[in-house]
Amino acid sequence: MPTEVVHPLAVVFTLPGNVTHVGQLHDLPNQMLAAGLAEGMVAATHPHGPIRTRSVARKYVQAVRRMARELHAGGFRGGMADLTPATIVQYWLTCDYHRERCIRVVLRSYQAVGGDVHPGIREHLAGRRASPTAPTVMGSGGASPGHAPRRSRPPTGHTKRRWTRLSVAATR
63, 99 in Cβ contact below 8 A? Predict the structure, then answer.
């Protein structure tokens, strides 16, 4: 049995080794967004995507649930087609590396199966991560032979004034 979306809204993951996991989404405040994210998780499940184990499925469900709750708390009431680049990038800037990665995979997978994703978001999906905590490694010039490259430090957060200017510019 393949991974599927069921009613009340949940994703029933069927994983390698006949392992199943149910990710409940029916209690989320924005069911329209949750349904699109559920479709993205279905499309991101093995053999088409990285969701191959119960623990990974749990992490994806947790990331999607958190995104739906936080966007709703911020006033977003639409579905996947209503997400704008400004909304998603602003959200990604609040995420850690792993949560941003999960959301990117879900959005790419949703798009791959014909889901309506804003063209600007598609461009961001093809680009670099926005998360300020993304693990980065300096180029080989910073490492001595036989030693691992040094990790760089993530950039510091924006000041409130800078964040306001960025938000205004992103919503024009």
Answer: yes
Q: Residue 18 is encoded by which pair of tokens?
A: 């006949």
DSSP assignment letter at 53: S
* Short-list 39, 31, 41, 40, CA closest to 8: 31
Q: What is the pTM of this model?
A: 0.76
**DSSP string covering 20-38:** EEEEE-TTSS-HHHHHHHH
Amino acid found at 121: I
Encoded amino acid at 10, one letter: A
Angle at 108 between CA 103 and CA 114, to 5 degrees: 130
* pLDDT interval class at 10 (50, 70, 90): very high
